[in-house]
User: Fold these one by one.
Assistant:
Number 1:
Amino acid sequence: MYLADSRGAPAAVEHRGRRWAAVPGTVLALGAVSLITDVSAEMVTAVLPLYLVSGLGLSPLGFGVLDGVYNGVGALVRLAGGHLADGGGGRHKAVAVAGYGLSALCKPLLLVAHTLPVIGAVLALDRTGKGLRTAPRDALISLATPPERRGRAFGVHRAMDTTGALCGPVLAFLVLGVAAEGYDAVFTVSSCVAALGVVVLVLFVPGRPARADANVSAAADVNANINAAGTAVHTTAHTAARADANVSAGAGIDADVNANINAAGTADARGSAASSTPLRVTALLRMPGVRRLAACAVLLGLTTVSDSFVYLLLQRRFEVPAQWFPLLPLGTAAAFLLLAVPAGVVADRIGRRRLFLLGHLALLGAYGLVLAAPGGPLPAVVAVLVLHGAFYAATDGVLAAAVTGLVPEAMRARGLALVGTGQALARFACSIAFGAAWTAWGDGPALAVAAAGLAISTPAAIAALRPSAGPSGDPSAGSSASPSRQRAT
Amino acid sequence: MPVPRRLTVLLAAVLLLGGLSVWAVVHAAARAESRSLPRAGEPAAGPGAVTLAAGHERRMLFRTMAWGPHRDEVVSVPADDPGAPRVSAGVRCLRFHASSGTGACLQAVHGSLGDTYRAVVLDARLRERRAFPLAGIPTRTRVSPSGRMAAWTVFVSGDSYAGTNFSTRTSILDTRTWSLQDNLETYRVVKDGRPYHAADVNLWGVTFADDGHFWVTLATGGRTWLARGDVAARTLTTVRRNVECPSLSPDGTRVAFKKRVPGLPEDAPWRLYVLDLRTMRETPVAERRSVDDQAVWLDARTLGYALPGDFGADVWTAPADGSGAPRRLLTAALAPVVVE
């Protein structure tokens, strides 16, 4: 009997033999929103340099100077987004709509922004929208998905997201192909696409997916299963699951979450009604699992060299032909896209935190290749990009999935925002330090130091995240154990 | 909302937004189409022979931006009659420079998945000798006085979300050996007398003194320097702060450049200056508008530079010694060079 599958609709669908259906409709809807939004965003990103140089006749140099400021603001906005989303018993959808909406409003503004400072301000506003929506969106994904399938759900979401990012530039250059110098047309189409993303979000992502969605579809599946199997056993199982979901408010699903709640103080963690004090962050950090995972994300983030440095290093240390340079980020994205879902599925099996750490080993491998094979052949470049993409596939959605296994529903968006912000700020600090190290010692030694840091941090993180490391046990081991346990039954 | 109702709303949104998108694209396509037709009141252009060879009258070559079939092509006019009909050899260039029978043309290659760019070395009759792929959007190019060396700078953009990381890539080509120094950032940098390396070093706007030496903008840490480059030694030595897009005078004694002047608006921060390399004294040029271009020396005393205009850009001129007043030299034109 499929106990785990009986918890909610998606899993129940899967054992009718459709693997993709194992991802809840809400996740697919959010994936579609991200895909559409990324098409819109990357259309702009792809033509922006051309627009500035050819369309407006501007020199965009020095444009990136404020990048650091934007990053810092973006991180704080993400915390605010998480905070707002969890407040008042769950306003995830409302905050997500605000975030996506804000970014969508920025696209038509590009039609009237003609100077670098104004364009910079519009992009900063766009980024604010992105910061605002990230945590509530990931919370919605987690709330719609049973714990043991969240790795896959986040993987599907990230794959759809990356698909949009890859399609955006293609669409933008199709428009420019039809209408030479039609940057206004690109921005108009981008605005329309962004608006469509918001429409899909409003229409197809339920406001309270956790229970409402599960109940409705679970009920539907009960019927389906009765029809399919005709056994009373399934019916019982599903009814029980429904009751469980209703009563436990999701927290009871994961034993470890209970442990965390107990550790943090039951009233504190469950207080979904009066949950709008900043003290929630401390409450989150008092949960040992969350604290350890956040610490590891920050520690590893401190040794994660930013993408632009990676491409710069590849350009300098390998003989990458000039015309290939713009393709380097596409290589990472393609590997991320292809590996995101498999990585999510593997994460559900072997444990998210284990895969998160394995992902950093892939990154270490990429660093090693860059260090070991300067001026190396092109296959080495491809290998670095595949490892880099594998790193993202094994860490990006997987970390979110791991966080959701530790944080109770009432604080889900806050927990996601906290860990995400910690990681982003750590990576930003790494960028600054890496730039300084490059200035002081040159690119090779700087990367060697980062690699050494990663080589030390990864085992430290492995030790910190070992199942036996804390009183609360290992949640990801818990969630990974459950499917296999059920498979055995 | 029931599912059929939601689907209806979605369909309506798709139709509305799709319709708006199609309208925008069709509108822009029609506008692009109309730009391929010549218009009354614009500088006229027609096909003809263009040469870089010596022994002809003094003439000015530039990229014409007037609408019509010759838009973006390199055209030639007599230097003393810049308003004359423009003669085009049918070579399209985004940026162009020439000296002693060698032309450097940075052009776009339209592909289905976006434009790619290449640098083309042209012979005296503007025929392609050799082409090199470029890593980004062309911004500057120069040929050395002898015609042997060529240099170019392109913008390379990052790929991050709403990517705002722009960097430059500057290359130097020896057209005799066809050896290409693909990235000048691999040169050893000596800044303020000390060896210097940093990830954020950017170089742009080469101007050649001779075949082995040049001047260039070096930027790092949000500041810019005038740097002297040595091709054989592969070194860059900074000599002065706050200098961008240097342009060496024909006698090699002065550098025209754009300078970031404090107190100017952030979207128009530059003024055109001339630096005397012997006295290191700066003289402001009479142009009071912000100039975002690498100026050219039209003769030993006169500068030419582009400013935004109705067709994208116009070429203006002003005396290099700070006297006089700016004057519009060419309408709908960019990247001028005088050939004798």
Number 2:
Amino acid sequence: MKKLQLLMLLLCFVGSFSLVAQIDTFQFDTDEQQQRFRRLSDELRCPMCQNTNLTGSTGGVAEDLRREVHRMIIEGWTDAEIEQFMFDRYGDFIFYRPRLRAETVLLWFGPLIFLLIGAWMAFGILRKARIVDQAELDLDPTQQQQLQDLLEKMNPH
Amino acid sequence: MSRLKLFVPVIGFFALALLLWRGLYLNTRELPSVLIDKPLPQFEIETVLGSQLVTNQDLPDKIFLLNVWGSYCLPCLVEHPTLMRLSEAGEIPVVGVNYRDRQKLAIDWLDVNGNPFSFSLLDEDGRLGIDLGVYGAPETFLIDRNGVIRYRHVSVLDENIWREIFEPAIAELRAEQVGL
């Protein structure tokens, strides 16, 4: 039990160390600017590490891009302008939420298309199953007679 | 007809499997550049050697390579002999972008390994790198006579890549510009 407690204590430290590692010391004039910075860094993807956002990345280019985002916020750029700046240099890849364009339509609606195909197939299978069930329920006259006989045998009265 | 319909799921499965199979072998590191066919960004930057201020006006007025490098970058050493050969043979001018490096380390690196660059732009804070959509050294851009980016190669430019990709691309650019 003691060992477990010690382990948990150690794990707490591991967590806090990795959090500390990513924090830049950017100064903002207002809380609103800080929130915008956090949102943008969360939604922009690090082009080098690919599976992390700017907030979570220690990559060199992510560091530079965070600095640029900070500079642009301080200089009064709007979010749309900052996103356009990134798009002009890194393309769709920079966004975790890519823009809706001809090239990204499949990315946006592909899953929906697969869902519809799946739903259509499931519906077809269910419908067929229902038809089969119904056919099994309908007895022909001989079967009907057999059933009647059985019931009478069980209930002689 | 209904016989054929039975095969639809199988065909669908194989189509999807083929697509995903192909996906396994795509190079996800090589992001398509949005800067192809766009002019090089404007800059006014110091050179690594001599700290001279240079702008777009100082770039070669013919087809050239813009190579992103750094003294910390091991793959840059791998492509270094190719760049040396190209510039020494006068095959094509190579301009360097010294990306996220320190000037002193860059100068030492050029001293030790040799300098294939007409000049190198000192991009210590990676600001020019951002304008070029760079995400790590080495990267090589092929720039045409009008200063427009025509091709971008991510990672090592060795003799094979040079022969198979750059030579045909350059021949195409030359033909195009003769035609003008």
Number 3:
Amino acid sequence: MSERAELLLGIADDELVLGWRDSEWTGIAPFLEEDVAFSSIAQNEIGHARALYELAAQELGTTADELAFDRQPEEYRCCRLVELRLPDWEHTIARHWLYEEADAARLERLKASDDPEVAGLAEKIDREEVYHRMHAQMWFDRLKDEPRFVAAVDELRPLIDVRDGHSPELTELWEQMTEVRRSQPAGTTW
Amino acid sequence: MIYEVFRQERKGQAFQHAGSIEAPDEQFAEWYAREQYGRRGESTALWIAPREALHPIEDFVDELNRNYHRVDGYPLKEKLKEARERASRAAAGDR
Amino acid sequence: MGQREDEFLEYVQSGGQIEVDDWMPGEYRARLRKFIEMHGNSELMGVLPEREWILRAPTLQRKLALTAKVQDEVGHAQLIYRVVEDLGKPREQCLDDLISGKSKFHNVFHYPTKTWGDVGVIAWLVDAAAIISQKALLKCSYAPYARIMKKICWEESFHILHGRDVVLTLMLGTEDQRELVQEALNRWWGPLMQFHGNPIPPEDDSMFVWRIKSQGNDAARQQFLDGYVPQIWELGLTVPDPELRKDEETGRWHYTEPDWDELMHVVTGHGPKTADRLDLRRAARENSAWVRSVLLAA
């Protein structure tokens, strides 16, 4: 696989898995207005993943859906941070804030890429991420004095750059994600 | 806090009341209004205002029926009918 | 009823609408609030059966559409509870009453979703039944409720498209996929036939008398059957009711009488998934109570 495809898949997997995790809040967020807002963020992340997969898929002769669903868990390149199932708001917002910060730096590098397709897509994605960063910062400012939030940030911060191997939580997520799809032969339309 | 939300559907159109949202402060209100009333691109702009900031006015006193600046002050239909009849009678008399 | 009540009744029955600060009879306010609160509860509880499939959606497009649909329903609950709040009952109290089982929610949200076929059938047919009920609220005598219904009906129309697309795709797929749809239809048909309520004559239905809704229960069910049974049949699906047929002379559909005892049993909190779903709501609310208190204290 080319370096470009590897780069695209790494970012796409981060966005996909984070979007999938964030979507676990749809319907049960701390209050109704936030539910609507956070669900849009989850949808955006998955939209970004799809666009990145599409770019990689052209090169690899496959499709975005096949890249998103039809690989084995160990083939995903996402970082440890996005895999975790975090069923409380303090960890969710801590991850959101940490991820957005790291993602912003990564997007800046991509926007400067020599590859016009990669740079162009990074521009588009960043225009949505601006809002995610505002949202993350707004929450950070409100929760920064809460001990449980501070602890969650400290706990999760080291996981951003961990990309060697996966936690069992990714396998669990993968099993759920692909459950319906695996129930029929490969190539079935859904 | 309750914030009232007004939305403009297309550029150039008037803003219309869309509904309201609850938010702890203006920054959250901005977010939640954006999501609740604009996530499908159905609005070109939103106005949000704390409910307390709106001053409803509902009393429009007109004790003496000042109808001269309203359409109903000028009931032309009857007069027009009468005038037309008169004109046709006059025309018939001339012959 | 006093003269003021009589005048109010006459006003709403001739198409008049009122605003939040206008005078309204006590009985009207109480019934209106209860009705709207149950609608809000239903949107919020309606999130849960489909939410279970957000993590299992089989393509990126389906994932996005289903997440957006559930998001819309949360948004509808938000809009509707705001209307209830302006009628004097705070949202927190609505949620307390919902979780404690004191207030009700719609029958269809008390049932389990077993397969991806359910996701399609719910989005298509349950939302179709819901949009018929909600369109009958567009002219509601209580104007703030009628106004939000425009946005709600508009968003529901996307859900029906999504549902129909899921169903059509499955029907064009493998034998197993077609079977998923037929099984889901078999499961949901009973609850769907109960959806619009027992056939009380509109003139005895206080919701109609006060013009909170503009159509009686039976008329809504007939409209549902008329609109959707042909669409179900044309896909080669079988509706699990041997009595179902349209009388071409009268234009009315005949069907096996829905199980009204089951409806009553389910909506009073004894459905197969009632307890689980309320537990989930309760746990989610307790789990994030601290977030609300931090924000409110700021």
